[in-house]
Amino acid sequence: MQSYSTEPEPCPSLAAHPWRNKNLVVFVVDIVHPGYFRSALRRELAHARMKEILKKYVLRCNLPELHTICAFGTQVAFYKYDIGRRKMQPGDASSVEFIDVISQEGFKKVHQIMAHIREMASM
Fold first, then answer.
1. Those residues with Cβ within 8 angstroms of residue 63's Cβ, 6 or more apart along the chain or in another chain
2. Using only C-alpha atoms, what is the Rg of the chain?
3. Which of 21, 9, 91, 82 is nearest to 50 (CA)?
4. How many CB atoms lie within 10 A of CB 7?
5. pLDDT in tens, 75-88
6. Would you say 79 and 109 are in contact if contact means Cβ atoms under 8 Å apart?
7. Are 14 and 28 in contact (CB under 8 A)?
């Protein structure tokens, strides 16, 4: 008899590439099962995974910063890695703030980040 896990597999990360060069990365989205949001342990694991994702993609980013989000359904955590200073914000799982991306605040935050990325790319 074969058993199956009742927990969904983690979703892969999605990396946004500039349309002209598929080797460069400008934005990364990590999608996590929405049910995991209620678990502090799952949020800590997602934070650790975000660190690994940033390590993976930081060398493929030609911008001064690499922005990423970790999404648990509509609850989204925003991350930024300053490439020159080699520093990730937020630095630890306890300081991660989540915003509902369909709220006015979440909508504004996403648009601010996209505008900032476009600005950095045009320099």
1. 26, 83, 117, 120, 121
2. 15
3. 91
4. 10
5. 999 999 998 898 98
6. no
7. yes
